[in-house]
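Supplementary Data S3. Sequence and structure tokens for construct A.
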Amino acid sequence: MSEPFQGALRDKHFAYRVRSVWIKPADYVTGATLSSGGASTLTCGYASSGAIAPLLIQLNGGRVAAAFIRTVGASLSYVWRPQDLDNRHPIYVRHLWTSDSALANVATFNTMFAVLGVGGVPATPTTSLTARIVTTAKGATAHSLALTRLGAIVGTATGAAAGQTFTSNLEAINFNFAVSSLTNGTLTTDGVYILGTEILYTPRQTVGDGSGVQAVINDVPLSTMAVSPTLDFKQR
């Protein structure tokens, strides 16, 4: 492309931190059952036949909201428009979660996504992450918080856009999150609480082709120590 003016700074001149989109539990709410005698019940996401839809609840009276999943076949959905995504680098996803169990549970998260574009017809997402979300065990205390490792979407585009994460004509990405099992616990009784889901990506903040170098992840949000993503297919 032509330069707006000679000598302009571009994304390639900066060492970015990854940009974070934090999906809070309330963002998953899809409906409400009104109650005349108290608070309404808020449904999060969707449920297949025979499953129980996730609910938005307060976790353990701690003034913290969570999306509560207790059956296989229940899922959470979120539509994200990647307006400033540098399309040459991966998108990462992870969950902050816990359960009612006092054991060191390991939840298995299933994540699917679908691309939404003009002229297309929305459908239930069926494409898996390039690298699935891997969960480490939570502490052996009820409601001890755990953060999953990073799942990733890497280079799904083909043809003229090969090597890029997506083709450039998408409008949004529809994510669908579910839990298929709970090791050292029972999903139907202990459940899984998702306190938040994080999407991480390399931003494109200037005109041009973006940066050839992926942004740096600081594993602890306020840390200044750079940590390479565990599932980074484009290590700098």
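Construct B, processed identically:
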Amino acid sequence: MQNIRQKLLGVLELHLFMRRGVERFTASRRDMALSFIVPALLFPVAMAGVFMASRPEIAGLSAGEVIALYTVRKIAVMVLSLYIFYAVGKALDRHEEFIRFITISNWSDLGGLVVGLPVYISMALHQEWMSTYGLFTVVSFYSLAVFGYTVMRAFRLSWEMGVVAAAVGLAIGQTSLQMLFYCAQRMTA
């Protein structure tokens, strides 16, 4: 229980841009493996958000098809991101930091959920997308800043490299989303 409390405190500190947040996570392979439970448990919440958003790009698909597409997207993004950050860790000779980074990233999904709650609530209340879009944009930029800060601290890099990492994360996420919409369009055609 103490271990979980330390991880939650680390997530909070990272979301407040505090240096100590990274130190609360270990570079242990066991902790890394166990950390994958967090995104797995939060995946149904993310799927609820997908269905609440009711994007026109996926309107013609069944619930099973939407879940399958988003599951494939989540796995593909995770694998590609892990590969890229593994390459960075290897190039910089920081393998232990890579293991710690994975653990932090998985636990940070909880922080992302909390930060994104206003957007989820707005969608659940069936607010117009344009009224939610501003909030969504602020939450997205904040999440990117936290991600860049986490990469910077976990790999002990300059802030410029943290910004590059955030840009790479954004590119991966947006490209995968566009690919998902393309697949959805092909499936309904």
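The first helix runs from residue 2 to 15. The chain has a mean pLDDT of 88.
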